[in-house]
Amino acid sequence: MITFFAIEDIGGINITKKNGIFANLSLSLGDMRWPPIATYLFANVCLVTKTGKVVLLLTEERKDGNIWVVPGGEPLYKNLESFQDTVVREVAEELGIELDTEEMELFDVQIGYPVEGSPYEDKGITSIIVSFVYHITAEELANIEMNAISEEGCDIVDILTIKVPNILANIELGTRNVYPALEATLRKLGKHLKKGS
Predict the structure, then answer these.
(1) What residues pair up with 42 in beta bridges, in sequence order?
(2) Separation of alpha carbons 44 and 155, rounded Å
(3) Is 153 exposed, middle or buried (0-12, 13-18, 19+ CB in 10 A)?
C-alpha cells in the first residue's frame, strides 16, 4: 500500500531506469514517476513477535521528546544500497541481530511532498519512507544486543515490546510519542495483524 502526503502532479523521473537509488523501488513498485527534486529516503522495519508485539526503540537523540521509533535508517547512497539491505544493516548495528531479507515483507511506502508551512517547503525536499514487516523469532529477540555498533547521538537507551493497540493508546494519552509517519504505519500494521489473527 502506498500513502501519499499532499499529492501533487509535478512530473519526475522514471524509476524503472537504472538511475541509482530510484532503481531500488522499481522491483517493488513498478513503473511510477517521482519528482525531480531532492529526495530523502528512509527504510525501517516493524519487528513483530509471535504474540503480535512490536519492538520499539528509544534513542539518545530522541529521549527528551520521548519519541519511540522502529529500527531503520537512510540507505548508503554511494553503495546504491537497497532498502532491504539498509534495514538489515541498521538492525545489525542497532540490535546486533541478522535479518533474512527473504523473510521481510514490504508493508508500507509513504511519499511526502513539501507542503505549505512545512520546514521543507522552500527546499524542495520530498521524502520516501519504505517500511517492512519482519516476524522476529524468540531466539532473535533473546539475542538482541543494544548498540552492537555505536553511533554518536543515535545510541539506543531503551527497548520496548508492545502490542500495537497499546502503542496507539499511549500516543493518544501522550505517554509515548512516535513520528506521524510511523504512527500511520503502526495503524495499518494493527489492522493487518488483526486480520491475520
Answers:
(1) 129
(2) 16
(3) exposed
Strands (E), the chain: 2-5, 13-14, 33-34, 39-48, 53-59, 68-69, 72-73, 105-112, 126-135, 156-163
What helix, strand, coil percent values describe the chain, rounded to 5? 30, 30, 40
**Residue 96 burial (10 A CB sphere; 0-12, 13-18, 19+):** middle
Domain ranges of the chain: 2-196
Evaluate whether 48 touches 61 at the Cβ level (below 8 Å): no
pLDDT tens, 47-80? 999 999 999 999 888 788 888 999 999 888 777 8
Going from the C-alpha of 28 to that of each of 48, 73, 98, 118, the distances in angstroms are 21, 19, 22, 29
Record: fold of 2-196: Nucleoside Triphosphate Pyrophosphohydrolase (3.90.79)
Looking up cell 496507539, which residue turns up?
Answer: 168
Q: Tens of pLDDT along 2-52?
A: 444 333 322 333 333 333 334 444 444 444 444 444 577 889 999 999 999
Q: Model-level pTM?
A: 0.76
